[in-house]
Write a structure and sequence with these properties.
The complex is a heterodimer of chains A (about 250) and B (about 375). With about 250 residues, chain A is an alpha/beta fold. Chain A has helices at about 35-50, 70-80, 95-110, 125-135, 190-195, 235-245; strands at about 1-5, 10, 35, 55-65, 80-85, 110-115, 140-150, 150-160, 160-170, 170-175, 200. In chain B, strands 1-4-5-8 form a 4-stranded mixed β-sheet. Chain B has a 4-stranded antiparallel β-sheet with strand order 2-3-7-6, with no helix packed on it. In chain B, strands 9-10 form a two-stranded antiparallel ribbon. In chain B, α4 (about 80-100) packs antiparallel against α5 (about 105-115). The chains are: A alpha/beta (about 250), B alpha+beta (about 375). The complex binds flavin-adenine dinucleotide (FAD) (2 copies).
C-alpha cells in the first residue's frame, strides 16, 4: 500500500509569533520555519506502518514556496521514500490545498492519506476533511490510534468527552492528533540519505487547479495583552469577584 | 568564502538542537547534582549517529566530517556541556581506531562504539606527565604476542565506566618516538581504576585514574606501528580540540540565551534590566565574542576536513580562543543574573563550571600558545 503524507511548512513552534505591522498576517521574514508538528506525527505513523510491512511506499507532499522542499527533505530523512513539491508563491487556503492534494491522489492512487489534524499557523483544521469530501473517501479525524487490517483501517478518535472508534474502508483520509505517537529524530545517516531521494516539482496549473483564495483576510491582530492578576485575601472575596466583576457565577 | 550552511548541515544542526533540547537540557541539572553518567541518553544520541560522527559507515559510523561535528557539539553542549564533552572524547577515540586501526580492529571495536553498546576513553595524561605528555612513563613491554602493561593514567574521562581504553604507552625509548597506541578492554586482568575524582564541573561523566599492573593484552590490540602512538594521539587531539571548542560555544550560547531572557524579565530601578544600555552592550559583546569564536572553530574544522597542512595551527588557535570566550561569556552571563546567577536554580553557574575545564584539557591554553608560537617562529626562521 502506498501512503501519501502532506507536510506543511509553518513557523517553528518555538518562535514567538508576531503580527506584521500592516496587519495583513504573521511575520515570516527571517523567522525559523519547520514542519507542522501534527504532520511530523503523520510522517512517523506512515513510517511505522512501513516498518510493520503494511505500507510499501511513502510519498511526502508539500505545497507552497520553493523552501517547502526542505520540509519534504525532513520527511524523507524520517523515512519517506520520495517527495512531491507543488510550488507556488500564492497564498494557499485549505480548499485549494485539498483540491491540489485530491488531484495528486488521483494520479498517485494511495491507499491512505495521513496528515495533521491542523497546522499550528492558522489552526484551520479543514484540509483533511475537505480532501476526504472531494475524493469521496471516508475520514477518521483526530486520530490517537490507528490499526490497519486488510482493507479496513480502525481509527481511535479524540472527541469531546472521550474516544470514539471508527472503522473505515480504505482508501481513506486520517488526520493525526497529538497522542498518536512521538515522532523520531532523523538520524545523521538518514539525513544524508534523504539528499539522494527524489523530489518532483509541479505547479498548480499542471494539476489543473486554480488555487486562488476564496476567503479574504480582513485583518490580523495580536490578542490583547494579559493584564496582571490580583491577589485575593479570602475565598469569600474570590467568590464575590467572580460573581460581581467577572460575572461568571 | 561561503559562510552559509548547506541544507544537510542545517538539518543536522536542527536534529542535534532538537535532541539536546528535549533529551539533555531538562535532565542536565540533575545529572550534575547527582553525578549521573547518562548511559541511556548517550545511547539514544548514538542511535542518531552522534557516537561515530566521522567514523566510516561500513562499521556503523555516520561518515560525516569535522565541520558537521562542530555544528553537532555546539548544539549538544547547549543542552548539557558535560555530556556533550564526554561524547566528543568518545568520538575522538572511535576515530583513532577507524583511522589507524586495521580491518580486523575496525570490525571488532567500531560497531559497538558507534552504537555506544561500548564506551571509549582516551588515555594520555599521567600523574607526572600532563602538558609534557611525551614524557609519559607507563610501559608496555612485549612478551611474545602480548604486551605487559604497568603504570598509571590520570584524569581519564569515562574512567571506570568505559569499555575500551585507547592508551598511549611507552614501548621504546624516551620521547615521543618511543610511544605506541594500545587498546585495553575493561575486564582485562591487571586493569583497575582509581576512585572517581570530585570535580568543579563535568559531573555527568566520571574522571578517574586508570591503573595497570601486569596487565596483558595481545599485540593485535596495537593501533598502527610501534612508535606511532604519540603521532596518533596528537592527530586525535586536533579534532578533539575543535569538538571541545564547539562545546564551549554551546555552553556560552546557552548562557547568553539565558541572559537575553533574564534581562527581559527582571525589573530593578523601575525598569527591565534590558533597558539599561550598560547591560545591552554587555550582551552585544558576549554575542560578538561567541560569533568570532564560532568562525574560528568553523575555519579550523573546514581546514581539517580539507587536509589543510596548517590545520593543527588553526585547531590550536580555535581551541584557545573559543574556550576562553566560552568561559568569559558564561561568567558575564552569571554576572548579569546577579545573585540568582550564583544559584543552582539557574543553569548559568553549571555552564560556567562545565566549560572551565576546556581551558585546561586536550592541551592547556598555554600549550595552545606554545604550538602557535612554535609555528610562528619556525616560519620566521625559514624566511631569514
Ligand atoms: C576533568 C578532566 C578530564 C580530563 N580528561 C582526560 C582524558 O580523558 N584523557 C587524558 O589523557 N587526559 C585528560 N585530562 C588531563 C588533561 O589533559 C591535563 O590535565 C592537561 O593536559 C594538563 O596537564 P596537568 O594537569 O598535568 O597540568 P600541568 O601540565 O602540570 O600544567 C600546570 C600549569 O602549567 C602550565 N604549563 C605547563 N607546561 C607549560 C609550558 N611549557 N609553558 C607554559 N605553561 C606551561 C599549564 O598550562 C598549566 O597552567 C583531563 C583533565 C581534567 C581536569
Ligand atoms: C551567596 C549570596 C549571599 C548573599 N547574602 C546576602 C546577605 O547576607 N544579605 C543581603 O541583604 N543580601 C545578600 N545577597 C544578595 C546580593 O547582595 C544581591 O544578589 C546583589 O545585591 C544583587 O542583587 P540581585 O541579585 O537582585 O541582582 P539584580 O539587582 O537584579 O542585578 C542583576 C544584574 O543587573 C545589574 N544591574 C542592576 N541594576 C543596574 C543598573 N542600574 N545599571 C547597570 N547594571 C545594573 C547588576 O549589576 C547585575 O549584574 C547574597 C547573594 C548571594 C548570591
Amino acid at each position: 500500500m502506498k501512503i501519501l503524507v502532506p507536510v506543511k511548512r509553518v513557523v517553528d513552534y518555538n518562535v514567538k509569533v508576531r503580527v506584521k505591522t500592516d496587519g495583513t498576517g504573521v511575520e515570516t521574514a527571517g523567522v525559523k520555519m519547520s514542519m507542522n508538528p501534527f504532520d511530523e506525527i503523520a510522517v512517523e505513523e506512515a513510517v511505522r506502518l512501513k516498518e510493520k510491512g503494511i505500507a510499501t511506499e511513502i510519498v511526502a507532499v508539500s505545497l507552497g514556496v520553493a523552501q517547502c522542499a526542505e520540509t519534504i527533505r525532513t520527511a524523507l530523512a524520517m523515512g519517506a521514500d520520495r517527495g512531491i513539491l507543488v510550488e507556488t508563491d500564492a497564498e494557499l487556503q485549505p480548499l485549494a490545498v485539498a483540491k491540489l492534494l485530491a488531484a495528486i491522489a488521483k494520479t498517485e492512487q494511495p491507499g491512505l492519506i495521513i496528515l495533521g489534524k491542523q497546522a499550528i499557523d492558522d489552526d484551520m483544521s479543514a484540509t483533511g476533511q475537505m480532501l476526504a469530501a472531494l475524493l469521496g473517501w471516508p475520514q477518521g479525524t483526530f486520530a490517537s490510534k490507528v490499526a490497519i487490517e486488510g482493507e479496513t483501517i480502525t481509527v481511535t478518535r479524540e472527541v469531546d468527552g472521550g474516544l470514539e472508534t471508527v472503522a473505515l474502508a480504505l482508501p481513506a483520509v486520517v488526520t493525526t492528533d497529538l497522542r498518536l505517537n512521538e515522532p523520531r529524530y532523523a538520524s545523521l545517516p538518514n539525513i544524508m540519505k534523504a539528499r539522494k531521494k527524489p523530489i518532483v516539482t509541479m505547479s498548480p496549473a499542471e494539476l489543473g487547479v486554480d488555487p486562488a483564495p476564496r476567503l479574504t483576510v480582513v485583518s490580523v491582530a495580536e490578542p490583547p495583552k494579559r493584564k496582571a492578576g490580583a491577589k485575593v485575601a479570602s475565598v469569600a472575596e474570590l467568590v464575590a469577584k467572580l460573581r460581581n466583576e467577572a460575572k461568571v457565577i | 568564502m561561503d559562510f552559509t550552511l548547506t541544507e544537510e548541515q542545517r538539518a543536522i544542526r536542527e536534529t542535534a538542537r532538537d535532541f539536546a533540547e528535549r533529551e539533555f537540557r531538562p535532565q542536565a541539572a540533575r545529572w550534575d547534582e547527582e553525578r549521573i553518567f547518562p548511559v541511556d541518553a548517550l545511547r539514544q544520541a548514538a542511535a542518531l549517529g552522534f557516537a561515530g560522527i566521522y567514523v566510516r559507515e561500513d562499521v556503523g559510523g555516520s561518515g560525516l566530517g569535522r565541520f558537521d561535528a562542530a555544528l553537532i557539539f555546539e548544539e549538544l553542549a547547549a543542552g548539557c556541556v558535560s555530556t556533550a564533552a564526554y561524547l566528543s572524547i568518545h568520538n575522538m577515540a572511535a576515530w583513532m581506531i577507524d583511522r589507524f586501526g586495521n580491518e580486523a580492529q575496525r570490525r571488532r571495536f567500531l560497531p559497538k562504539l558507534a552504537s555506544m553498546a561500548h564506551f571509549a576513553s582516551y588515555c594520555l595524561t599521567e600523574p607526572g606527565a600532563g602538558s609534557d605528555a611525551a614524557s609519559l612513563k607507563s610501559r608496555a613491554v612485549r612478551h611474545g604476542d602480548q604486551y605487559v602493561i604497568d603504570g598509571a593514567k590520570a584524569f581519564i574521562s569515562g574512567g571506570g565506566a568505559s569499555d575500551i581504553y585507547v592508551c598511549m604507552l611507552r614501548t621504546g625509548g624516551e620521547g615521543p618516538k618511543g610511544i605506541s597506541c594500545i587498546l585495553v578492554e575493561k575486564g582485562t586482568p591487571g586493569l583497575s581504576f582509581g576512585k572517581p575524582e570530585k570535580k568543579l564541573g563535568w559531573n555527568s561523566q566520571p574522571t578517574s585514574m586508570v591503573l595497570f599492573e601486569n596487565c596483558r593484552v595481545p599485540v593485535t590490540n596495537r593501533l598502527g606501528e610501534e612508535g606511532d602512538g604519540f603521532k596518533i594521539a596528537m592527530m586525535g587531539l586536533d579534532g578533539g580540540r575543535i569538538n571541545i571548542a564547539a562545546c564551549s560555544l554551546g555552553g556560552g550560547r546557552a548562557s547568553l540565551e539565558a541572559s537575553q531572557r533574564y534581562l527581559g524579565e527582571r525589573t530593578q530601578f523601575g525598569k527591565k534590566l534590558a533597558e539599561f544600555q550598560a547591560l545591552q552592550f554587555r550582551l552585544a559583546d558576549m554575542a560578538t565574542e561567541l560569533e568570532a569564536a564560532r568562525l574560528m572553530v568553523w575555519r579550523a574544522a573546514a581546514g581539517l576536513d580539507a587536509g589543510d597542512p596548517e590545520a593543527t595551527l588553526h585547531c590550536a588557535m580555535a581551541k584557545r580562543f573559543a574556550t576562553d570566550a566560552g568561559f568569559a561569556v558564561c561568567n558575564e552571563a552569571l554576572q548579569l543574573h546577579g545573585g540568582y546567577g550564583y544559584l543552582k536554580d539557574f543553569p548559568v553557574e553549571r555552564h560556567l563550571r562545565d566549560v572551565r575545564v576546556h581551558q585546561i584539557l586536550e592541551g592547556t591554553n598555554e600549550i595552545m600558545r606554545v604550538i602557535i608560537a612554535r609555528r610562528l617562529l619556525a616560519q620566521t626562521d625559514r624566511r631569514s
